[in-house]
Amino acid sequence: MEETTGRSTKKKVVVVGGGLVGALNACFFAKRGFDVEVFETREDIRIAKVVKGRSINLALSHRGRQALKHVGMEEKIVSKGIPMHARMIHSLSGKQSPIPYGRKGQFILSVDRANLNKELLTGKIFFYSSAKVFVTYVAAIFLRSDGSNEQIKADLIVGCDGAFSAIRKQFLRRSRFNYSQTYIPHGYMELTMPPINGEFAMKPNYLHIWPRNTFMMIALPNLDKTFTCTLFMPFEEFEKITTGDEVIEFFQKYFPDTIPLIGVDALKTDYFRLPAQAMVSIKCSPYHIGDKCVLMGDAAHAVVPFYGQGMNAGFEDCLVFEEIMDQLNEDFSTVLPEYTRVRVPDDHAIADLAMYNYVEMRAHVNSKWFLFRKRVDNILHFLMPKTITPLYTMVTFTRTRYHEAVDSWHWQNKVRHFLKMCLLFRLCHFFFPAYNLLFRGRCSFCLSILVL
Ligand code: FAD
Ligand code: EGO
């Protein structure tokens, strides 16, 4: 085994998991001149034709883009993404209403997961293997390929092996490691909406949303002019539907406008192609062991997909790590604890926000409420751009730390409450002149302050 002596030899980093975050991390470490190896259990997606993944396309936003920019990949990825300038809310009657994201020119991108993964792994200098990681210790990982065991030593092991991380399992055996996971009652299923006469079946530059409380569907555009529709509903409801006719009946009730677009026959068969998939929220801390091992991406924090931030947060993990590496001169013994200190509160905040959106949307949000809330957000932001920035905007279009976005949101809620009280007093003055006598003309704003 080669010894690393100070600066003379390259430090060796083993990245476990060649998914989105692992692949991006490999770019970051390679760029720093480290000797990088990526280990992945699935077959090499750079060669594989069909890639079975979790979701087909994803919403890439500012945080993810900033990380890509740092490794010089932003343009390449963005050029193959489809901009979504607004949400398109579909009501039950089939009416479509666009609501732009905050300011003009702001958009999120629909990107192809497999292509993104491939681009991040292509042309890199590291070795890529198909091996099963089964045990990890502090300084070495053990691989099992074709029944034989091999031990790989590294200066740093980066666990990017997803929500069911094998690396994280080793953390669980240790003392003072916090861990929690929650499966939500909803599952998801992806359905493809084909092009019509060679064109997109709906307007392409939107994030299409069908908010129906418990039942939710979204659609993101693909380069081949299809849309990938993702249906979210409780497993219980998925299980109730057992025949093709019941599928149509269900869509007739909740998503009637999509039946002709997806196609009756396609719906009847695609629904039964794959069972609904589970969604889990995972939080843990710390993210590191000594100066040897660190978790990033879903391995550190799986979030439910109701904010479109899972990958973006994972990419930002890599960027934050990179920034700390700069600050602390690549000294893992200080970089790793600092990364945990800085990143845990933010990752926990986005996990909470995503869960909050899930709870909120399933309980209250139909198409009317969605439109109303987003319009009020946009109006308030327009009137008081310095004071009110919608939470969705802070999360999606800025690099405001997630936990600070939450703090700011709480403060804004107080301002909103204050404005609501002012409005209420105004209305009272208007409708009940006796109020003026009662308060002897005192300014309603002052009174509102008392209420606050
Ligand atoms: P993964 O993508 O899960 O990659 C982990 C990799 O590790 C895999 O390739 C796996 O094969 C490999 N692996 C596992 N175990 C081992 C092992 N023992 N040894 C070696 N390799 C191993 N995020 C967004 O930002 N925007 C969205 O719009 C969005 N939409 C989503 C929609 C759905 C339905 C879901 C489920 C998620 C969505 N996400 C979204 C979240 C996003 O998919 C994840 O956050 C992202 O894939 C995390 O990347 P990762 O590399 O950490 O994990
Ligand atoms: C009132 C109205 C309260 C993911 C609206 C909360 C999420 C939530 C899953 C959208 C956008 C990217 C997404 C908005 C809300 C992706 C997203 C949003 C979904 C579902 C998603 C928005 C993939 C919640 N962003 N979002 O503001 O447009 O608002 F609908 Cl089910």
From TrEMBL:
Classification via HAMAP family: Kynurenine_monooxygenase (MF_01971)
UniProt entry keywords in alphabetical sequence: FAD, Flavoprotein, Membrane, Mitochondrion, Mitochondrion outer membrane, Monooxygenase, NADP, Oxidoreductase, Pyridine nucleotide biosynthesis, Transmembrane, Transmembrane helix
Assigned GO CC terms: mitochondrial outer membrane
Origin: domain of life: Eukaryota
Organism: Sander lucioperca (Pike-perch)
Cofactor: FAD
Record GO biological process: 'de novo' NAD+ biosynthetic process from L-tryptophan; anthranilate metabolic process; kynurenine metabolic process; L-tryptophan catabolic process; quinolinate biosynthetic process
Cellular compartment(s): Mitochondrion outer membrane
Xref: PANTHER family: KYNURENINE 3-MONOOXYGENASE (PTHR46028)
Membrane-spanning intervals of the chain: 12-31
Annotated pathway: Cofactor biosynthesis; NAD(+) biosynthesis; quinolinate from L-kynurenine: step 1/3
Family stated for the protein in its record: Belongs to the aromatic-ring hydroxylase family. KMO subfamily.
Catalysed reactions, semicolon-separated: L-kynurenine + NADPH + O2 + H(+) = 3-hydroxy-L-kynurenine + NADP(+) + H2O
Function: Catalyzes the hydroxylation of L-kynurenine (L-Kyn) to form 3-hydroxy-L-kynurenine (L-3OHKyn). Required for synthesis of quinolinic acid.
Enzyme kind, highest EC tier: oxidoreductase
MF terms in GO: FAD binding; kynurenine 3-monooxygenase activity
This protein's name: Kynurenine 3-monooxygenase
Membrane topology: Multi-pass membrane protein
Enzyme Commission numbers on file: 1.14.13.9
Domain FAD-binding: 12-318
Record InterPro entries: FAD-bd (IPR002938), FAD/NAD-bd_sf (IPR036188), Kynurenine_monooxygenase (IPR027545)
